[in-house]
């Protein structure tokens, strides 16, 4: 009996039971559907074992959209709880669990995969490559991320969610329940996947660019992703180590982050933010890259200030590593340290400001076309700037004693992350949708969504600045009527509900467009400028029949307007990597390994550890040199696509 008690959830509620039933039914429906329509083989051959960067990208996208809704449900539950004073919808424990899972899911399992989706789908096409440098590693990255995310997501049904915030500060996180184990181990598994992504894309961008594409001729999204991946390679190992120490504290009673026996609880906070602050730049820089592409395309001109864009991103990446202590100005590290971290933090506003001026100047001289992606990008500029300004306010360490751990901070980071990252994701999704699927998303619904999200966003988050300054603390599950926070929090709830409608509209748009959108569109429906639009839609699995030769960062524009020849020479056979089941199998074993550790099931933990090494050994001794696509096959594919 004692054995089974471990898996029970400590704080059950109707909502949790209902989601268990819903999750169970969905699983059964999916499995039954796959069996009924005989899709298992298709799923295995075309998706699970795929090493094609485009398909891996799409799997990242699907996961990110699912997680957007998981994190969104958490968000709306919190806003509903806070809508009125002394509310009893959620108790304190549930509130703790929900802000924790909301934060982790949104940052690590929603925003990260969304950005990695763009990197996967766009970068090889944008640099004229056939795939990433290490296609199989890419599949392993995805499956490790996916299994880590799934492991984290079952926590609320098996054993209980973590409840110490997405920052999981010790000693708060040091509890008897298994929640913190889930946090440490699930994020570890996903994080290893991300670290591999970083190495993979750094190599891809450095080594696999089309002839003629020097570094300063790379499109801006590729630049932004390159820098983000360099940051990943430097920042994620810190997280790996911190999580490993935390896991050992949890499972084996080591004393890295404890209060006694020489442990240092603040060490966790430092390590966490040495990773955590660069992490937010891993998200925002590619988002900036996406905006740059979109703003230039729909202003019908080249991006203003290319070199200063690159320089400012390089500067931001360096600064991002030297600001982490601004997350705990109030810990008492002294005036000197606080002053230094204040100044470095404020300094980030300078390169960021340069980028904003560059976008405005691009628009200034451009012929603006108001498509949905452009609408998001134009809304982004003022809304994001608002978040940037409140960031500078927070950077003043003396003033931060008032803002720290209040709703002001919550308003600030949502203010940069929603218009900054989420809008970029939605803009980019709309922009690249036709390249992925061969039809456009509906523009009318798309614009409605953009406006609803913007208005909802302002209503949801502006009041938090006010109540935060008045002293409403973050992570508090309720407040009394006498505080006077009630009306503002009600406005916030209405805003969150409007945003929820916006997110549902995205799903409706996908449904609507699948059914009604015209399939009769060109491979370049936006009249775009960069290489990814130079190939067919749908993109053949080898991307380009002949490797393009480029002379500027806008190679496709040159081809269209300046008669620059992209494809020289004849078809030659193309070398492509083979599919493999090992990444998926190995990641499943990782899932089992993580689960065993979370519940201290030592024998399964040992068996799965061996399993992981067996997979690695198998791979090492495998003789797989990929395959060739023959000239005949290329000719057939190309003529078929041209005819379509
Ligand atoms: C879509 C609308 C969203 C709403 C209404 C919302 C709402 C909230 C609320 C109410 C909290 C908890 C405040 C507290 O009591 O401390 C919170 C925390 C948080 N949110 Fe959101 N959120 C949204 C989207 C996002 C997105 C897109 C991200 C990141 C990509 C995000 C990341 C976070 C993080 C990291 C926390 C901190 C969790 C913690 O305190 O440990 N949120 N959000
Ligand atoms: Cu920071």
TrEMBL record:
Residues 38-551 form the Cytochrome oxidase subunit I profile domain. The chain crosses the membrane at residues 14-37, 58-78, 98-125, 137-160, 180-202, 223-245, 265-288, 309-329, 335-361, 373-396, 416-433, 445-466, 486-511. Keywords: Cell membrane, Copper, Electron transport, Heme, Hydrogen ion transport, Ion transport, Iron, Membrane, Metal-binding, Oxidoreductase, Respiratory chain, Transmembrane, Transmembrane helix, Transport. It is an enzyme of class 1 (oxidoreductase). It catalyses: 2 a quinol + O2 = 2 a quinone + 2 H2O. Coiled coil: none annotated. It is found in: Cell membrane. Its main location: membrane. Heme A3. Its EC number is 1.10.3.-. Its cofactor is ferriheme a; Cu cation. It is a multi-pass membrane protein. Pathway: Energy metabolism; oxidative phosphorylation. NCBIfam families: QoxB. Belongs to the heme-copper respiratory oxidase family. Catalyzes quinol oxidation with the concomitant reduction of oxygen to water. This is Quinol oxidase subunit 1. It comes from Pseudalkalibacillus berkeleyi.
